[in-house]
């Protein structure tokens, strides 16, 4: 139970943030918030020793037991690694934000509430073993990231970026939910562990492919894979601490986590291997190619993040090949290892680079790379950190990115060796695309650091006079940069402690324990194809970077009309215009039209359902005989209804309407329902009294010239509604698909509810929430009416005073 509660600690702490912000304004709220992720990081660190040996920890918190829904925390190598990234990087981001966000100018209580909410959501995603709770936390990440991206809500770009990210990721999340439902239908369980155990039996199920596609839509939208990556660059309008946290180490890795977690279930599918590997390698190339086009520092990092996520995704797809033959295991067994290793490396160097971009923006007042340059001597520490992160991203030694990049190239070269799934033909494209994408990765890495810190200093174009950032703002990026270098020299310690347990969770059918994974990371493997490819990347990358001004202009030749962003904008504009036109067709302002639409829809749906379900089984057995006085009451009802509709006088119409209501009350008396009769009498009395009170303000009734077809439409709808009610009443009386609940009420009204009046007990006890909500609605409506009356009286008083 305590393990589950760890997930909710940030969410619970968020409740205290506004109080601390209000009561302790002299202290930056971030100092209080920092204790939350730091404490959790220490707690999760205590699991490392046991999890690295292959142990797992589970805990369950019942949520909706009647629907078999629980929050199950499952800590294995994969979920523990992500939990450590979420809390560890989260601690550094909070520390960075303390110096980045001004406590006097920013609404810190909002920022940290959103951040802590997101932290809980991410912990829930990576630890959930229950499909429904995973979906709940998944969408909670979308909501909280929407709030974080739109934190500066007065800016149009922030609101647009927040809405765009939520539209795409929430849409993908709904698709993912569909995949989860299909998985449940296939396996009969919500548990991911149990579904993995029965994976060999799920492959042949007719719903398997649909589940696979829907789940990947959720993963691809969240992890900004092609063509869904378009939300990530717009999300850069968020404060830099948000970008460093969400878009380098956590949220965008949620899709990576989803693919890794469900690989044991879907890896047997050829479609899974091709989609994950193919979309990943395409995203890698697309992101790296267009990163060089960007002029905003965070824009460069956004596209580089898209590129790096594609690299990790392609490795996870390649790792699925190892499920298909013993030869594959020996040849490409390191693909999953490389994916997890690069995931760690990416979090370190990309987190530091985002923070440096924020520092440059904070100290110079701009992120426009065209206005920057020559900052190396002014901001030497920032330059050093940026150089370490950029060179690691470029895949150069002695930095951790070099090690995982080499393993990536090896995996792509290995794919073309397999004859199954067509990799021996089309697989030859993977190393070529990977090599070209790596060249552009090299270029944008150099582009980021040297165009910012090298070259000519342009003080006249900078809003602020630049200077080195305060040490507090530099601590976090310096620590991340130190990890970049340290991991290069101790890769096998990282591999044995963190990577292998995660790989064993991804490939449980191949490895029983993390120790069974015999992968040893080395910086030097001799002269091999990977080394030659790296040399080629460096040579061509340097040449293209030096010649960048001569060919960078080619990006301007791409027509804006054919971009994915433009397609999204046109689609949203089209939906907005089309739906506005549609709404104007039926939003006429006429209550009669609205009732016509509603009654037509209800009649069509109900009568149609009766036809489809063949529910016209009408029997007049066991029905009470119709007595003469009941016929008289029916005639009174019909006459009263006709008077109400045809009356030329308002008073006559009110009297006719009252006669209808009181006649219905008499029917309740005859049918032995005194409570309903009393209720009806009270309602009718009040209604008639209100009509009479408002008599003066009612519209005058007179001859209305209307075209015949509108009257005919109303007549048809009225008849259809009447037929519908009659058919439903007769059909429900004549057949019982399920036993009536009335018997249960009769048996339990006294023993369980402690009441003697069955109608009162049903309203107050059995339908207590329904009654409460009805009372609440009436209360809200009453307060609204009172407010409008007071507002009108105030306006009259002001008008009178002015006169």
TrEMBL record:
<keyword id="KW-0739">Sodium transport</keyword>
<feature type="transmembrane region" description="Helical">
    <location>
        <begin position="207"/>
        <end position="232"/>
    </location>
</feature>
<feature type="transmembrane region" description="Helical">
    <location>
        <begin position="6"/>
        <end position="24"/>
    </location>
</feature>
<feature type="transmembrane region" description="Helical">
    <location>
        <begin position="594"/>
        <end position="611"/>
    </location>
</feature>
<feature type="transmembrane region" description="Helical">
    <location>
        <begin position="531"/>
        <end position="548"/>
    </location>
</feature>
<dbReference type="Pfam" id="PF00662">
    <property type="entry name" value="Proton_antipo_N"/>
</dbReference>
<feature type="transmembrane region" description="Helical">
    <location>
        <begin position="428"/>
        <end position="450"/>
    </location>
</feature>
<dbReference type="Pfam" id="PF00361">
    <property type="entry name" value="Proton_antipo_M"/>
</dbReference>
<feature type="transmembrane region" description="Helical">
    <location>
        <begin position="677"/>
        <end position="698"/>
    </location>
</feature>
<dbReference type="InterPro" id="IPR005663">
    <property type="entry name" value="MrpA/MnhA1/PhaAB"/>
</dbReference>
<keyword id="KW-1133">Transmembrane helix</keyword>
<keyword id="KW-0915">Sodium</keyword>
<feature type="transmembrane region" description="Helical">
    <location>
        <begin position="71"/>
        <end position="99"/>
    </location>
</feature>
<feature type="transmembrane region" description="Helical">
    <location>
        <begin position="244"/>
        <end position="266"/>
    </location>
</feature>
<dbReference type="InterPro" id="IPR001750">
    <property type="entry name" value="ND/Mrp_TM"/>
</dbReference>
<protein>
    <submittedName>
        <fullName>Na+/H+ antiporter subunit A</fullName>
    </submittedName>
</protein>
<feature type="transmembrane region" description="Helical">
    <location>
        <begin position="471"/>
        <end position="494"/>
    </location>
</feature>
<feature type="transmembrane region" description="Helical">
    <location>
        <begin position="134"/>
        <end position="154"/>
    </location>
</feature>
<feature type="transmembrane region" description="Helical">
    <location>
        <begin position="710"/>
        <end position="730"/>
    </location>
</feature>
<feature type="transmembrane region" description="Helical">
    <location>
        <begin position="372"/>
        <end position="396"/>
    </location>
</feature>
<feature type="domain" description="NADH:quinone oxidoreductase/Mrp antiporter transmembrane">
    <location>
        <begin position="128"/>
        <end position="421"/>
    </location>
</feature>
<feature type="transmembrane region" description="Helical">
    <location>
        <begin position="334"/>
        <end position="360"/>
    </location>
</feature>
<keyword id="KW-0050">Antiport</keyword>
<feature type="transmembrane region" description="Helical">
    <location>
        <begin position="299"/>
        <end position="322"/>
    </location>
</feature>
<dbReference type="Pfam" id="PF20501">
    <property type="entry name" value="MbhE"/>
</dbReference>
<feature type="domain" description="MrpA C-terminal/MbhD">
    <location>
        <begin position="636"/>
        <end position="700"/>
    </location>
</feature>
<feature type="domain" description="MrpA C-terminal/MbhE">
    <location>
        <begin position="715"/>
        <end position="790"/>
    </location>
</feature>
<dbReference type="Pfam" id="PF13244">
    <property type="entry name" value="MbhD"/>
</dbReference>
<feature type="transmembrane region" description="Helical">
    <location>
        <begin position="166"/>
        <end position="187"/>
    </location>
</feature>
<dbReference type="InterPro" id="IPR001516">
    <property type="entry name" value="Proton_antipo_N"/>
</dbReference>
<dbReference type="InterPro" id="IPR025383">
    <property type="entry name" value="MrpA_C/MbhD"/>
</dbReference>
<feature type="transmembrane region" description="Helical">
    <location>
        <begin position="771"/>
        <end position="789"/>
    </location>
</feature>
<feature type="transmembrane region" description="Helical">
    <location>
        <begin position="272"/>
        <end position="292"/>
    </location>
</feature>
<keyword id="KW-0406">Ion transport</keyword>
<feature type="transmembrane region" description="Helical">
    <location>
        <begin position="631"/>
        <end position="647"/>
    </location>
</feature>
<dbReference type="InterPro" id="IPR050616">
    <property type="entry name" value="CPA3_Na-H_Antiporter_A"/>
</dbReference>
<keyword id="KW-1003">Cell membrane</keyword>
<feature type="transmembrane region" description="Helical">
    <location>
        <begin position="111"/>
        <end position="128"/>
    </location>
</feature>
<keyword id="KW-0472">Membrane</keyword>
<feature type="transmembrane region" description="Helical">
    <location>
        <begin position="654"/>
        <end position="671"/>
    </location>
</feature>
<keyword id="KW-0812">Transmembrane</keyword>
<keyword id="KW-0813">Transport</keyword>
């Amino acid at each position: 139970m305590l393990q589950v509660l760890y997930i909710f600690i940030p969410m619970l702490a968020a409740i205290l943030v506004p109080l601390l912000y209000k009561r302790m304004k002299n202290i930056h709220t971030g100092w209080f918030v920092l204790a939350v992720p730091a404490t959790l990081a220490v707690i999760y660190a205590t699991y490392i020793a046991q999890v690295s040996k292959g142990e797992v920890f589970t805990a369950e918190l019942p949520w909706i037991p009647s629907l078999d829904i629980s929050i199950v925390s499952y800590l294995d190598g994969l979920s523990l690694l992500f939990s450590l990234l979420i809390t560890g990087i989260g601690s550094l981001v909070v520390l960075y934000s303390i110096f980045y966000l001004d406590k006097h100018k920013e609404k810190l209580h909002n920022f940290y509430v959103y951040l802590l909410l997101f932290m809980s959501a991410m912990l829930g995603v990576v630890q959930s073993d229950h499909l429904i709770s995973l979906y709940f936390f998944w969408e909670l990440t979308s909501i909280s990231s929407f709030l974080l991206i739109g934190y500066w809500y007065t800016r149009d770009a922030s609101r647009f970026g927040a809405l765009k990210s939520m539209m795409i990721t929430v849409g993908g999340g709904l698709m993912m939910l569909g995949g989860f439902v299909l998985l449940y239908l296939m396996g009969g369980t919500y548990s991911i562990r149990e579904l993995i155990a029965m994976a060999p039996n799920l492959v042949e199920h007719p719903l398997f492919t649909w589940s696979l596609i829907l789940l990947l839509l959720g993963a691809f939208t969240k992890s900004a894979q092609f063509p869904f990556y378009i939300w990530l660059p717009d999300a850069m309008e968020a404060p830099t601490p948000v970008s460093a946290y969400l878009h380098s180490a956590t949220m965008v890795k949620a899709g990576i986590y989803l693919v890794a977690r469900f690989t044991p279930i879907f890896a047997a599918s050829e479609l899974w291997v091709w989609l994950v590997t193919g979309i990943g390698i395409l995203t890698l190339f697309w992101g790296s190619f267009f990163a060089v086009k960007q002029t905003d520092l965070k824009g460069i990092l956004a596209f580089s993040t898209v590129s790096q996520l594609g690299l990790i995704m392609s490795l996870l797809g390649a790792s699925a090949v190892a499920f298909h033959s013993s030869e594959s295991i020996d040849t490409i067994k390191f693909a999953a290892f490389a994916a997890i290793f690069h995931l760690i490396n990416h979090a370190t160097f990309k987190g530091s680079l985002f923070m440096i971009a924020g520092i440059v923006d904070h100290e110079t007042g701009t992120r426009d790379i065209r206005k920057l340059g020559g900052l190396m001597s002014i901001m030497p520490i920032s330059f050093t950190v940026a150089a370490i992160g950029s060179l690691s991203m470029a895949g150069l030694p002695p930095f951790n990115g070099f090690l995982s990049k080499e393993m990536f190239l090896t995996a792509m070269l290995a794919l073309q060796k397999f004859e199954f799934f067509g990799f021996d033909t089309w697989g030859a494209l993977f190393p070529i695309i990977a090599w070209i994408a790596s060249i552009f990765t090299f270029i944008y890495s150099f582009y980021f650091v040297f165009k910012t810190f090298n070259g000519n200093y342009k003080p006249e174009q900078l809003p602020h006079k630049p200077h080195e950032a305060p040490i507090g703002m530099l601590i976090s990026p310096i620590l991340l940069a130190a990890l970049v270098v340290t991991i290069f020299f101790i890769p096998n310690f990282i591999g044995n402690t963190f990577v292998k347990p995660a790989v064993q969770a991804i490939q449980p059918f191949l490895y029983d324990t993390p120790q069974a994974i015999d992968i040893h990371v080395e910086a030097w493997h001799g002269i091999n194809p990977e080394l030659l490819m790296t040399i080629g990347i460096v040579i061509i990358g340097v040449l293209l970077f030096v010649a960048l001004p001569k060919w960078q202009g080619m990006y301007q030749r791409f027509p804006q009309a054919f971009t994915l962003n433009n397609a999204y904008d046109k689609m949203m504009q089209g939906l907005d215009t089309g739906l506005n036109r549609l709404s104007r067709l039926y939003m006429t302002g006429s209550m009669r039209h609205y009732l016509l639409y509603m009654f037509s829809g209800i009649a069509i749906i109900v009568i149609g359902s009766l036809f489809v379900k063949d529910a016209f089984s009408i029997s007049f057995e066991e029905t009470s005989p119709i007595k003469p006085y009941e016929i008289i009451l029916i005639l009174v009802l019909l006459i009263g209804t006709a008077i109400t509709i045809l009356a030329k006088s308002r008073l006559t119409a009110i009297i006719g309407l009252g006669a209808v209501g009181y006649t219905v009350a008499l029917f309740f008396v005859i049918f032995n329902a005194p409570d309903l009769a009393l209720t009806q009498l009270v309602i009718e009395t009040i209604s008639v009294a209100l009509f009479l009170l408002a008599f003066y303000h009612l519209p005058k009734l007179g001859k209305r010239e209307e075209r015949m077809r509108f009257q005919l439409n109303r007549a048809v709808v009225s008849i259809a509604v009447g037929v519908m009610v009659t058919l439903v009443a007769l059909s429900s009386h004549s057949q019982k698909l399920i036993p009536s609940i009335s018997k249960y009420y009769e048996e339990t009204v006294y023993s369980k509810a402690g009441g003697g009046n069955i109608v009162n007990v049903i309203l107050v006890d059995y339908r207590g929430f329904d009654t409460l909500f009805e009372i609440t609605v009436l209360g809200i409506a009453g307060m609204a009416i009172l407010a409008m009356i007071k507002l009108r009286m105030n306006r009259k008083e002001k008008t009178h005073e002015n006169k």
